[in-house]
Amino acid sequence: MMAVYFQIPHADKDQAKALGARWSTELELWYAATDIVAGRLAERWKQATPPTPLDTFPGEDRAFGQATRLYVDMIPSSCWLTNVRSSVSADDWKQISLGVKQRAHRHCEVCHAPADNANKVFLEAHERFEYVNGVQVLRRLVCLCSKCHGATHYGHATAKGQEQEARAHLMHINGWNSAELEAHIRSAYALWSSRSFQQWGLDLSILTAAGVQVRLPSQDERLRQGVDLSALRT
């Protein structure tokens, strides 16, 4: 029989495995390989339609952001919740995320490491923006491992108590000493602070050119997530 896919929450994965479900790394979905297993899973979870990976974004600059191998790139506070995941449907994000990972052959595009679930190293799709003429422009989508992703979002890593891991990874990947690391972090914070003083337009045209519908979070949605644009200093 053809594989039958199911919408199984992460919290239920052990139960699904016990019933015979298998994990598709390519599609990031649980599936049944036999009618018997499909029947068992169907009693508890809904079937899912496998997503079609999206890996081509017209106008994308695949070389953008490669001047430094790994760098701190904190999103200005005035741009929180304008990331791709917050601006597209869950189904579209799944297609984008899968496509970005598959075209990178499921390896981090910075350190070239594969996913390592046993050591909690996962692959994630990450946006690289350029801030120019008052506009936050999406230039590129890149596949990063969770270590490189955490170091890139250094401020978030610090808030989660993972600062030392992020610092060690930045030094390891770039071959930096402590002084070079400190200089880079100071520069990144200064840039983040200056950008956070203003509001930015948003250009996600490489997504819309690929047929993805963009829907930005409303002001109320951003407020519920703690993003108060009225508090910005201009």
UniProtKB/TrEMBL annotation:
Which InterPro entries does this UniProt record tie to the protein? Answer: DUF5710
Q: Residue ranges of the DUF5710 domain?
A: 4-41
Name any one Pfam family assigned in the record.
DUF5710
Q: What is this protein called?
A: DNA primase
